[in-house]
Design goal:
about 160 residues; about 85% helix; mainly alpha; 6 helices
Length: about 160
């Protein structure tokens, strides 16, 4: 079992770090969205989203799978519990992504920035997208901290 943990933990840390970092980058860049005129916001958002897909889902899922495996196979109870906490936090981050951010991304991808719907200002999703992005970013960072704590126990 120790050999499996020696593979799973570094992969969980790497994938979790990439996921937390990617979501943190978008959290830091999100205020830019609110300063852009509507006609510029849609293409900038589209451009950024295509840079993060499929990187973010792969990172989140890889870390989640490693955490689940660690929660089952790690020799120490504290490592199993920390990995389980990390997995739950990642599952929550993925749920936020799939139910809140991805629908907004998909809707924006259908829009022509030169011909936005007349009611776009009323439907403008920037504040909602930013709020939910902060939530999923915080969840991913918390999962990374759980994994770092689990790694510290193993050291």
């Amino acid at each position: 079992m120790v050999e499996v943990v020696q593979v799973l933990m570094p992969v969980a840390l790497l994938a979790g770090g990439l996921a937390a970092g990617g979501l943190s980058i978008s959290v830091l860049a999100a205020p830019l969205f609110t300063t852009l005129p509507t006609g510029m916001y849609v293409p900038v958002h589209k451009g950024l989203v295509t840079r993060f897909d499929p990187f973010m889902p792969i990172s989140l899922l890889s870390c989640l799978l490693c955490d689940v495996a660690l929660a089952i196979t790690a020799p120490e109870l504290s490592v199993r519990l920390l990995a389980a906490v990390g997995a739950l936090l990642l599952l929550a981050a993925m749920t936020v992504s799939l139910t809140k951010n991805v629908p907004i991304n998909r809707w924006l991808s259908t829009l022509d920035p030169q011909n936005l719907p007349a009611d776009f200002d009323r439907l403008d999703p920037r504040e909602r997208w930013i709020r939910w992005n902060r939530v999923r970013g915080a969840l991913a960072v918390a999962a990374l901290l759980a994994n770092v704590s689990a790694a510290a126990v193993l050291i």
